[in-house]
Amino acid sequence: MPSPNSDTEKHRTHLYGRRKGKRLRASLRDALDHDLPQVRIDPEKIAPPCNPKAFFSPDIEKIWLEIGFGGGEHLAAQAQANPHVGFIGAEIFENGIASLLKQRANAGLKNIRILDNDARAFLPFLADNCLDRVFLLYPDPWPKAKHAKRRFVNQSTLDQLARLMTPSAELRIATDHPEYARWCLRHAPIHPAFQWNVSGPESWKCRPQDAIATRYEKKAIREGRTPMYLTFLRVAG
């Protein structure tokens, strides 16, 4: 059987985007140094196929994954509202990771685990049918045509999510970038595993009722951009 390290090397991906921002204040640096090791998922210590429920206590019933959780406010709110769901947040920006750790500590949340790596390096290690919901909220749209291949939504990642998501699981995407929305609608609905869950010609303007506005959504509205919400269902078969 291949070692975890060799599997990690096989599935290693190139990371795009910043790892660090402005200097962290002491409390956030302390959260990174002391709290992150308690909840961190290390891909190099995972042997496939991995059931992500193994990262949580036995009372966890479902697993939800947020890819690129930004400041962590959405993930923390969802974790607080759904104590029997295990939340895995993937993010490479350490300022955002520190922010989520602080929110986790303040609310006493026990159902959060953090992958401080690109989610694409993690997905191949997971067992089939293990994710009950996936969030992709305000990802980098990579607006230049030459950078389009960097967008998370593509044939390869949709194939991975199709393998990992349970029947009827939701893939929720939010963006304020029209071209990224068009890109998603050109790729996800034609994938045989996904169906666009749309109820009317303008339902894409409605944030899901159990979601909250992230800081990126609030910024988009302040700057005159329209948030768009796209939900795709994992179809059975």
Architecture blueprint of SSEs:
Elements: H1 4-10, H2 26-39, E1 62-67, H3 73-81, E2 85-90, H4 94-107, E3 112-115, E4 131-137, H5 155-164, E5 165-175, H6 178-187, E6 194-196, H7 215-222, E7 228-234
Parallel strand pairs: 1-2, 1-4, 2-3, 4-5
Antiparallel strand pairs: 5-7, 6-7
Helix pairs in contact: 2-4, 3-4
User: Tell me about the biggest sheet?
Assistant: 7 strands, mixed
The name of the CATH superfamily of the largest domain reads: Vaccinia Virus protein VP39
At CATH level 3, the topology of the largest domain is: Rossmann fold
Q: Order of strands across the biggest sheet?
A: 3-2-1-4-5-7-6
CATH architecture of the largest domain: 3-Layer(aba) Sandwich
Shape: globular
Q: Kindly state the percentage of residues in helix.
A: 25-40%
SSE string: HHEHEHEEHEHEHE
Distance between the termini: 29 Å
- Which CATH C-level class of the largest domain is it? Alpha Beta
Task: Write down how many β-strands occur, each being a DSSP E stretch of 2 or more residues.
Answer: 7
Number of domains: 2
Catalogue the unreliable spans: 1-12
Give a brief outline of the structure.
The chain is an alpha/beta fold and 237 residues long. Helix content is 30%, strand content 19%.
Describe this structure in words.
This protein has helices at residues 4-10, 26-39, 73-81, 94-107, 155-164, 178-187, 215-222; strands at 62-67, 85-90, 112-115, 131-137, 165-175, 194-196, 228-234. By secondary structure, it is an alpha/beta fold. It folds into 2 domains: 1-41 and 60-125, Vaccinia Virus protein VP39 (Rossmann fold, 3-Layer(aba) Sandwich), CATH 3.40.50.150; 137-237, 3-Layer(aba) Sandwich (Rossmann fold). It has a 7-stranded mixed beta sheet with strand order 3-2-1-4-5-7-6, with helices on both faces.
